[in-house]
Known about the structure:
With about 475 residues, the protein is α/β, with parallel strands linked by helices. It has helices spanning about 10-20, 25-40, 50-65, 105-115, 155-165, 180-185, 210-215, 225-235, 265-280, 295-305, 305-315, 325-335, 340-360, 365-380, 410-415, 445-460; strands at about 45, 75-80, 120-125, 135, 140, 170-175, 190-195, 220, 250-255, 285-290, 385, 420-425, 435-440.
Amino acid sequence: xxxxxxxxxxxxxxxxxxxxxxxxxxxxxxxxxxxxxxxxxxxxxxxxxxxxxxxxxxxxxxxxxxxxxxxxxxxxxxxxxxxxxxxxxxxxxxxxxxxxxxxxxxxxxxxxxxxxxxxxxxxxxxxxxxxxxxxxxxxxxxxxxxxxxxxxxxxxxxxxxxxxxxxxxxxxxxxxxxxxxxxxxxxxxxxxxxxxxxxxxxxxxxxxxxxxxxxxxxxxxxxxxxxxxxxxxxxxxxxxxxxxxxxxxxxxxxxxxxxxxxxxxxxxxxxxxxxxxxxxxxxxxxxxxxxxxxxxxxxxxxxxxxxxxxxxxxxxxxxxxxxxxxxxxxxxxxxxxxxxxxxxxxxxxxxxxxxxxxxxxxxxxxxxxxxxxxxxxxxxxxxxxxxxxxxxxxxxxxxxxxxxxxxxxxxxxxxxxxxxxxxxxxxxxxxxxxxxxxxxxxxxxxxxxxxxxxxxxxxxxxxxxxxx
Length: 468
């Protein structure tokens, strides 16, 4: 394995600026790594290797000429298949979008490329990003690099898997119901879900129509907090802030160990407690308390999806043509599927679940306001909370048949539109990664990144590339 593959995105950018590696050397090493691990993972499903090598040679020339270099100059990245990359198919795993060939980059992709990043390829996602496992009709199943029999999560599972295995230094994902945070926790990487709507989503599929925009966010993923912070500054067009800040002392935060209904495992509870200790040893003040409105948050999340949003999701599955959930169920039962069974199950559950909770009188928007107000009252305008992302470490493939029982662990964050950062904190007894999420009030991404960096320094000072 080439030594550049083990470096973080920030370290790679610095090594390229210092002349330790040329961009072409780094890009070729990461392509070789993808070729070595991808047969087992099935994470990268759209290759862009020839164009990436050409861009790397052009980046070499800028280094030789002493030209100004962007903060990600020559750094190899991958992006979720749901984002447009000019000249590369963008299907979101959908048969209906198989021939879609965008002519320009999504805004988020363009911002990373403008900083010098080189896109190696695009990573697997479930059809229409609508499942918490990563299985698509077009590309099949992605496996967790820590145990191929286990799920990497979804919907940004391909991205998390290839980052954990060292095939990419930085990634781009999205999160409407835990889709960045769940894969990050299960694959042992860092993932940031910013405040809903903060980062431009133009060029992302499916479009965040109506209230879906209140639930969704796009954000960066990497193996290190500092890399996610660098990418967040670029994506949000905000000035970067130092992470190793001494002013965290005295900062208050809350923590809890489950979603108020489903107990979490000993490994997950231990991860939260380890993160709490790491911060209290830095002088932060912890309170064990939780917002009650996080319970059954999936009901509020479903109630936020009205008729217009349900139609938009259906048109997403159809690539613009409205598809009927029942018709697709008939197709799958007749062994003539057009979408993967997991995405169909998730679609049916959300489509009819949304109708049911609305009929029961659940007001998702009132729930959102009450949850957000309760959370801010608990932690303050600049505080945060530490809690689990899921009750266990990564389960085996097929676990999502019971996702309604566990989804409130993630969806309360989306319902309230809050930013959240996942940080790895160790390994369970069976060797699987354990991650925790730090959740803050709207606009507190930099506070989360600083606290996450302190946890990383204490618990995971060295990132490990998982061999496959």
